[in-house]
Amino acid sequence: MFLQYAAMTFDKSASAGYLANHMARLFARGLRARIEPLGLTVGQFPVMLELWEGDGLTQKELRVRLDIEQATIANTLNRMERDGLIRRTRNEGDARVQRVWLTERARTLRAPAYAAATAQNAAALASLTEAERARFLHDMERVIASMQESEGG
Amino acid sequence: MFLQYAAMTFDKSASAGYLANHMARLFARGLRARIEPLGLTVGQFPVMLELWEGDGLTQKELRVRLDIEQATIANTLNRMERDGLIRRTRNEGDARVQRVWLTERARTLRAPAYAAATAQNAAALASLTEAERARFLHDMERVIASMQESEGG
DNA sequence: TTATGTAGCATAGCTTGCTATGTTTTTGCA
DNA sequence: TGCAAAAACATAGCAAGCTATGCTACATAA
């Protein structure tokens, strides 16, 4: 009886995938509201994080570091170039490769963007203690690692 | 010095929002691969979970339960009707309201869809103990609740 | 050297999320 | 009763994710 019951129900609030999706949408909503005044979008944000740490990266380097598909990064870079956040140059020595550079405007956004992301993270983690936050981040990393493994092999 | 350093850097692997987004994308990739043979998509899946528990819900009821925007659920329902998963009827008594009903085909997908979601959750949580999983799900619910609060007020 | 394969990027077309806005029906109040 | 506000849903248009496919440049092997 119990097994049959278990097979016929699915508690969404006990589903990691369901909760992860909901949590990520709420993070995106909050961050979107905070960075919209800066002229940034939530998809551009992770690219900016990489480039603020050091630009001149190739499209492939961004794709690998951010773990997104090649077509996704290509389209995001198109919008970022359109919006005046980046410029792209061809690589000498290998004409297939392009390098991505921040514009001056993009550089000025760094501090307020960090502040926006930090504020959103703080709001999200408000009810957790410092120890619980560290543990929670670590658990997310473990879950990410598990899915990356089951993806690759 | 330390504060200045902290203000000028942003460790993405220490950012809850960054990790939540990455984790949710990996969940979606895995679930997409598992339910694609069933003719279901990741956006339709949460709607199906609600309807399998009892159909005849209104669009507004789905919107509130799933915490997505009205336009999003409207478009998802359009695709589900197109794909033969649901039918919509007008509510007697209030012509503005519609009720959503599963088709026979949609009902047959319940067991294999539950199995797919369960398998994806298991793969994701493989490296966590049973106690850690429970704690992790609970922490996600707390984080979700915090963001919903800061949204509403 | 030439043919074949691979690497890097672009493009087409889809889903799923969002905001903004329009339409119709119902409600509520003067 | 009639009119304004609100409620429920539809639609337009954008961002960001995906798969599939195409193009060009480079590498490699016969």
List keywords for this structure.
homodimer, 153 residues, mainly alpha, Arc Repressor Mutant, subunit A, three-stranded antiparallel beta sheet, DNA-binding
What does this structure look like?
- By secondary structure, chain A is mainly alpha-helical.
- Chain A has one domain: Winged helix-like DNA-binding domain superfamily/Winged helix DNA-binding domain (Arc Repressor Mutant, subunit A, Orthogonal Bundle), CATH 1.10.10.10.
- The first copy, chain A, has eight helices and three strands.
- Chain A has helices at 2-8, 16-35, 44-52, 59-66, 70-82, 104-108, 110-124, 130-152, and strands at residues 57-58, 86-90, 98-102.
- A three-stranded antiparallel beta sheet of chain A has the order 1-3-2.
- In chain A, strand 2 (86-90) and strand 3 form a beta hairpin.
- In chain A, helix 2 crosses helix 7 (110-124).
- The relative contact order of chain A is 0.11.
- At the A-B interface, helix 2, helix 3, helix 7 and helix 8 of A face helix 2, helix 3, helix 7 and helix 8 of B.
- Chain A binds a DNA duplex (30 and 30 nucleotides) through residues 25, 28-29, 32, 41-44, 58-60, 68-72, 74-76, 78-79, 94-98.
